[in-house]
Each structure stands twice: as C-alpha cells, then as structure tokens.
C-alpha cells in the first residue's frame, strides 16, 4: 500500500453549509476500514466543529484553527500548537468595529475587514500572518499553517507526507496540498488551487472526495496518476547542463560498473536527493561501502551481523534511514539472509508504504542469475548496484527503467546488460565517461544512452553500530 493516509479540509471539501452528507461519511468509513488513517485539517475552531460534526470521531487526528490546534478524537485530548492570541490585538480590533471570533490561538473575522486587521497588526508591531479562506480572514501565530499542524499529526501517527493524499478547496489549503505526495482540488476549488493540484475531481465537495476514496480503496491510486510530477530523483546533468532524472516513485534502476568507478558516490547522491524530498530509504550493503553515510543509521559491522528486529523497529519511524551491513554474513549465506529480510520488508511496506526506496548493493550476490529464476517481479522503487550486471537475475534486469553505467568501462557494462536480456545493444554514445560521469540508458524509451556528470557523495568516514536505545533518542 503506497497511500496510507488522507488529510481533508472541512468547509467546501467534505462539508457544504457546515453539513457532511451521510453518504460522504459512509465513504470515509470504508476508507478507514481499508487500514488507512484519516486526518481532518480545517480552519474551524474546535468547539464549533464538535457541535456541528458528530462524525468527527471517525478521524484519527484533527488539526483545527488552521494548524494551531491538534485534537485527538479517541481520547478527547487537545494540544495547542501556537501562541495564544494577543489580548491587545483582540481589544484593538473590537474597538474598531471588527467582528472577531477568538480561538486558542487564532483570531478570525471576515472580508472586508482585512485592511483594518493588517493596520492593527502593524500598529502593535506584531508578527502575525494573515490567511484568507473564501471570504474568511484568519490571524495566526508565527510559523503556523495547515501544513505545520499536519506535520505534528503525522508524527504522532508514525506516518510520512510521502504516503499522504490531501484534498482542499480554498486559499489556506495551498500549504496542505503542497506537503502531500498526491494533492486533490475538488471541483468547486478556487482556480489557483486547481492549477497546482495533482488531480481535480469531476464532482464538487464530498462527492469529489468520494471519487478519490474509491480509487484509493480499489487501486491505491495506481489507475489515477498525478497530472504533474512534483518530485524527481536526480541522477546528474548532461552535457547541456540539463538535469537527468527518474520518477521519485514507481521506478527502478541498475547502477553498474567495475570497482572504484563511482557507483557508490552516484547512489549516495541519489539517496541524498530522496532524503531531502522526505523519502525514507534502506540500503542493503554487501561490502561496507555505506558505513560512513551520514543520513542513515547503520546496522551490522564488518564483525557483527545485523539484527532484523532492530532494523524493522527503526524503519517504523519515517525519519530514520537504514544501512544494513552484510560484511559479517558469509557470502554463501547472503542470498538466504536477503530473501528472509525481503519478507519482513514487504510486510512493512504493505503496512506503512515505507521504506520508500531500497538499495541492493552487490546485487549479483543477493539476487543472482540462476537456472531457476524468481517468479515474482522485483519491487518498484529499488536501485540495484552491481559490478557484474550479466549475473543479476534476469527478471530484475527486465524490469528496471534505467541502466546507469559508471566509469571508463561503462560501454562494456551496457553491452553486458543488453546481452543478459538478449536485447539489442545500445547505440554508441558520442563520448566515453570520465571521472564522476556515467552513461544513463532509459532502455524502455530511448535507444541511445546519455552521458551524465554526477557529484561525488560524502567521504567522511564514520562507522556505527545502532542499538535500539540510541536509535529511539535519535528518532
């Protein structure tokens, strides 16, 4: 399951005139029964929301006051995420005839009083952002919006924004949709929100949300790709300086080349791109090449085997990346170790949608070419690294989207890949790769590899052995 949660605005998204129709509530119940988490992210103040929306208990978390308040429906607890409203500002606005509603952190009014609001904030020398919402005017604490409150909710639920669908309709939903992996504007949304959304529904409000709910339950949105790609996995730049990249989800690659040709440096750069974009990764490291990789926690050393329980405990936390070092596992035992590890990894991915990316180093050892090939196709979002691509399982070679061959031996690596698949060898590129360069062949759609320069990764040495206690402190 890729999409494990949905965050929904209230007014204009699931509600019309403060009412959520019964059939929309029924659809949200079906979505929750599929194992997904539901989050309500609204500009409403909590007391009025509780009074008008009895089905609020269906949601796992509620972000109210446009990100300034977190509510846990199951326990009834609430957590303030912003500063209280400045009394002087409330008093000044009321003295000037501005109708205001005061929440735990938010001050709300309506247009056309925004000019008076802005002038009052300026007079008092305050730092208070003003957010608009289809005629409503909201004064918020510094640094607070729907996305900041949503981050707190996701953290409590152990979820990643990269597994989140979000839907909204108004100006204050821009931050919400921008955070999500898959963003939805309902048909009645403002034009600027529609312009940036990954999907615009056919129907308005709750009926539009139900379109997405049905696709989530039946296909995990695989039948409804986003209208635009917001996140790409950069490989490097070609001779013209243009970025060469893969999709950040739903693709896979083979990185090939002899020893010391820059394979691990290129992969590190790709992982740093993924890390910056919020994707979680796990590297299965056969030679100890990634023991010094700063973003990750390392499990196993050249002298100690990794512990699977520690690894999966760590990966339950979205912000923890893992390197699984197999250097202490005898070579003959590594394929069996990896097969067992994959079972646990698949179960974790089905439950959480993570880790988002897997790197299989020395793939010719862990998924070798044999007479009895694996029946199942390899998982998407995987980078296979190999010094001998001809010895990697044929089912894997057939399914990768890109072949990235590093160093002076790159052409031979490309030929080995093509020969292993009994495919036509790629046409010769115009130039041979030099240091920190590679040939990139998107073999499904291109006949000629592209010469790409990439940046070397981290070189600082740091080997660590993770234990659960330190891991929890870091997370």
Question: Any overview of this molecule?
Answer:
The protein is an alpha/beta fold and 475 residues long. The chain is 31% helix and 21% strand. The chain contains 15 helices and 23 strands. Strand 11 (182-185), helix 7 (191-196) and strand 12 (199-200) form a beta-alpha-beta unit. The model is unreliable at 457-475 (pLDDT under 50).
How many beta-strand segments? 23
Query: How big is the Rg?
Result: 26 Å
Overall SS class: alpha/beta
Tally of separate helices: 15
Helix content: 25-40%
| Inertia-based shape | elongated
- Biggest sheet details: 11 strands, mixed
Q: Give the neighbour order of strands across the main sheet.
A: 14-13-23-22-21-15-20-19-16-18-17
Question: Proportion of β residues?
Answer: 15-25%
Short structural summary:
With 475 residues, the chain is an alpha/beta fold. 31% of the residues lie in helices and 21% in strands. It has 15 helices and 23 strands.
